[in-house]
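Objective 1b. Sequence-to-structure analysis of Chaperone NapD.
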Amino acid sequence: MNISSVVINVADLNLMSEIANLVSDIDGCEVVAQNENKIVALIESQSFDDEIKSYKSIERLPGIATVSMIYSYQNLDEDIEKSNNNNIGDILRKIDESSVDDIEYHGNPTV
């Protein structure tokens, strides 16, 4: 579980209520405070990628001047467990034993 908070600076004070409602409509977002031209929102998500998607959704709202992430917490226990149990030794051994001719690259290198 990821939890973060953001401060949203609103460019047009006439849009405060509308922007607060739009932020609340974003999955996992909750408006917790409003003052002058600022809105404070919490983002709760299952992954870092989902957290960033919500953040980017807020940034794209009309009438936003800036969005600043103030706090971010990620529960990395599951990711750490996966990395500890990924059999990296077997993977490296398999790579070492492979012929260069068997390796395929499908990326797009840029220099």
